[in-house]
Queue: 3 jobs
Job 1
Amino acid sequence: MSVTRSRRTRALAAGALSAALLSTGTAGVVAAAGATAPKPSMTPTGMSNVKPSHTPTAMGSITVSADRKAVKVGNTVVFTGRVKGIKAGSTLVLQHRHNGKWTTLKTTAVVNKNGTYTIKRTFTKKGTEQVRVSTKSGTFHSSPVTVQVS
């Protein structure tokens, strides 16, 4: 008899703890978003019609590598990479760091069906170029790579 009572007590405690954790998590998300919690209402069939929030959960990423780390002025560098969470056909842009800010260059590529891309860029000025690949909207970008132009 005590084993059954012990199991019931544990099940009740686990259920109460789960409910408390879920409600705390929901309250934290609502407070962070600054929105009110959706209020359920019943449909004629007795089913709740609460709709999920439209908080973006998808993450995207871009990788990049250069075929050369050092080139002469007028030579072309080929940047290749892979994307995740970004649709095929999306436009990618090449950016370089200029005076401490990322500036978009007039060099673009389109994401292939397999999630890869290729961007070719001819550098016309000597110096160290720090470049990265970004979505046209600027939502996602790669880590920077450095090319020495001499």
Note: The helical segments are 2-33.
Job 2
Amino acid sequence: MRALVLVLVLVLLLLSFNSYATFHHEGKVTLHFVTGEQRTDKFVLALTREAGSYIFQVGNQSARLSSPPQKYALSVVLQQDREVWISDFAKQPLQAFTLEIAEHKIELKRDPQATSARGGFVLQYGNEEYFFGRGPAQINFNLKQSGIADIEIRGMFKPRR
């Protein structure tokens, strides 16, 4: 009887592990609005397995999915070379932002010395700088079972050195 109870407890523990987050990254995002206001918020990127499906959380939004996502794409839109819109972050235009999550830091700011950059906006990720191309930019978080595999910058280009 004790062996049966022990086996049952082990099976329940193993099943309950599936309900925990496959990954959970908690970072922060600092937003600089065109109004001059600045705000720092918690930023979560998480995947939880629950009842045969997955709960994918980005910031304060979440969605139930039938399979784990392969990537999360953050859209960055430069409007009239003056302001940036990131609807996943805010419902108003930005002048700059800094996102720190897991071991990654992405920063968008205006650099008056970057005269060839549209609007003077420069995105920095790692040791690389990027300028806006013609259309919207995307910051792609490629995902794996344990979290962020890597980050790719799309729709932007690296300036000549």
Note: The radius of gyration is 20 Å.
Job 3
Amino acid sequence: MKIRYLHVNDLAVLGPAPHWPYALPEKTFTRMFGTNTPVLMAVPTRPGTVRALLAARGETSRFRVVGYREPARPTTPEGLLEHSGISAAALSAQAALMIKEHSG
């Protein structure tokens, strides 16, 4: 099994080329994210925004996007990471689940 870590500095590149001037060309997007590989994306923004960019490309089922979620009450930075599902433990658990689903 291979795991690849990618850092995407500008999330707008995930949108489709006709609508986003700096979007990744389809060939580059495929080279980076594959075609049938599950992808876990942790983003510093609301995940729905990134899901919308991916959906515009026709990519919905194999991408799991986690990101900022408004807490119900004040919390610590660590608590916010856990609440949003982007703590190291939460990301590890999600990745393990995705690996199990993909290989089973």
Note: Strands lie at 39-42, 63-66.
